[in-house]
Amino acid sequence: MLEIKGLGVKVGGEEVLQDVNLEVGTGEVHVLLGPNGVGKTTLLMTIMGMPGYEVTKGDIIFQGESILPLSVEERAKKGIGMAFQKMPTIPGVKLRTLGELIVNESSDFLKEVAEKLNCNYLLDRSVGLGFSGGEAKRAELFQLFLQRPLLSLIDEPESGVDLDNINLIGKALSELLEREQVRTKKRSGLIITHTGYILEYLNADMGHVLMEGRIVCRGNPRDLFTDIKEKGYQECLRCER
Ligand SMILES: Nc1ncnc2c1ncn2[C@@H]1O[C@H](COP(=O)(O)OP(=O)(O)OP(=O)(O)O)[C@@H](O)[C@H]1O
Ligand SMILES: [Mg+2]
């Protein structure tokens, strides 16, 4: 589904990513780990095509085609969606209106998803405006869920979320990413997490550690977490997993 080859990216004049190689297969969920400030968000923003992220080398292939020439809108139409680490605010546009634009009408699906993510009471407020940390995360996932993308890019879905809501978000993501389905999985995900809580709900297929502008290690996500907790990220640079 996604193939990133030798990717270099500049942000604010700095080269943040140097040589990222990463593949996510159809129906697979991968997690992206790494210390603060190494460029995890930068990588997701670049895949989505957000302005300000300048690709200096390499390529991003989605379903066999380079998406570098495409705008954010065109990438979204092809089936790439993103839940941001920091939710954008759109004063004057209700979350409900945004939802209706995504699904084309006021549908039962919209109500169902709002219910699932405990967003009903937020629907008539401006998108993101004054949302608490946990509310913003649920509202981001509400929009992502309505889009039902083939590839979901999810930036720290559980950070700042209370335990009850982690359960709710975990279950919603498992449904969005079709983790319970045995044969017909067709949706993929690339998820940034610091805590690993989300792994209890998703049973991710692969983990990648980003450091020094490249993927320095990959493997079973649970094993990676155990090692990092024990030995710290610096050990990832020496590890020959
Ligand atoms: N618009 C910008 N202008 C200047 N520097 C930027 C800009 N955006 C990001 N950076 C820098 O690029 C680096 C990577 O940032 P990024 O947000 O991708 O990190 P991250 O791995 O997601 O970190 P975290 O775990 O804290 O979310 C940081 O040093 C950050 O300060
Ligand atoms: Mg980040």
Question: Could you explain the architecture of this structure?
Answer:
34% of the residues lie in helices and 29% in strands. With 241 residues, it is of the alpha/beta class. It has a single domain (2-238), classed as Rossmann fold (3-Layer(aba) Sandwich). The strands form three sheets. Strands 6-9-10-3-11-12 form a six-stranded mixed sheet, with helices on both faces. It has a four-stranded antiparallel sheet with strand order 2-1-4-5. Strands 7-8 form a two-stranded antiparallel sheet. The structure holds adenosine-5'-triphosphate and magnesium ion. Residues 11-12, 14, 16, 34, 36-42, 52, 85 line the site of adenosine-5'-triphosphate.
Structure characteristics:
single chain; 241 residues; alpha/beta; Rossmann fold; 6-stranded mixed β-sheet; 4-stranded antiparallel β-sheet; 9 helices; 29% strand; binds adenosine-5'-triphosphate; binds magnesium ion
Ions, cofactors and other bound molecules: adenosine-5'-triphosphate, magnesium ion
Mean pLDDT: 94
CATH superfamily: P-loop containing nucleotide triphosphate hydrolases
Strand content is 25-35%
Order of helices and strands: EEEHEEHEEHHEHEHEHEEHH
User: DSSP helix count?
Assistant: 9
Question: Low-confidence parts lasting 5 or more residues at pLDDT below 50?
Answer: none
SSE class:
alpha/beta
Helix content: 25-40%
> What distance lies between the first and last C-alpha atoms, to the nearest angstrom?
24 Å
- Assigned CATH class: Alpha Beta
Largest sheet: 6 strands, mixed
What is the count of β-strands? 12
Q: List the domain count as a whole number.
A: 1
**Can you tell me the CATH architecture?**
3-Layer(aba) Sandwich
CATH topology: Rossmann fold
From the spread of the alpha carbons, the general shape counts as globular
| Cα radius of gyration in angstroms | 17 Å
